[in-house]
Amino acid sequence: MARLNVSIPGDLAPLVSKWRRKINLSDICAKALRAELTAVEAHRSAAALLARIHRPATALERRLARRYGLAAVRVAAGAGEDAHGLREALGMETARYLEQTLSAGAVLAIAGGRQTWCTVQHLGPRPLAANLVALGYRQNDPHLLTAHANTLTTLLWLLFSPQAAAHLVGSDPAPSFDLARPLAPSPQYFVVASCAPFSAGCPLATLLGEEASAMLRAKGAACDFAYNFFDKRGRLVDVRIPGDRSILSARRLASLSQRPDARVVLVAAGREKWRAMRFALEARLCNTLITDTATAHELVGK
Question: What's the pTM value of the predicted model, to 2 decimals?
């Protein structure tokens, strides 16, 4: 192994002396040097810089795009198998996708949920003239306040301020997604949502309350994407839930998904979500998918 003499600042010397016989200082220095020098090389390399800006689609991503007629697919690499690890990996990938595609004048609607919360967590602050729209039910979720759409929209407004504007649950989201407007030259309309099974004890049923949950179960609701419910055969369930709501209908999501200047993003992974994902994809309610490798293989038939 090569040797290198390293000088340290005087104020750091007592701390180094305290720990030098308890930890491997050479290993720490090697890791720090590797990380720093790799970053420097990446910034100096045009190829590395372009790869970070525009990552070519993999063969699996291209297969998914062809199978479901998608405008964009991102398969998150290195996603863990546990639920938390999956959400974190997908949140990071979605945040990267949004940071690369959001531009001034964009309309961004976000649904509530732990997956979208992970996405917002990984976004960085920047001034952006964006129109932000909360999708969901009720004004807050006392059981999971951080995952409510109003909380997420408020956080986005803080990240993009002072130029962003926000519309919370209760306002009509349809005017922000006016399909009569001329097509923009680049993506300007974004909807970010996940999907999940629906049952009496699930988080969404708890938020909606027993009466609304019973109405949905009576209609056979088995899962949802962006608050549009499917039964076990993949048919849309038509139930109007009373109270504050801001929902983009399945018809509007499908129409948006056909526009080249819109990105309806489905962010999900995991065995328990496969059925809901397949229903949403086959109904063409989204045109962008962010998922993990195992789910991607399942969706294209392995």
Answer: 0.82
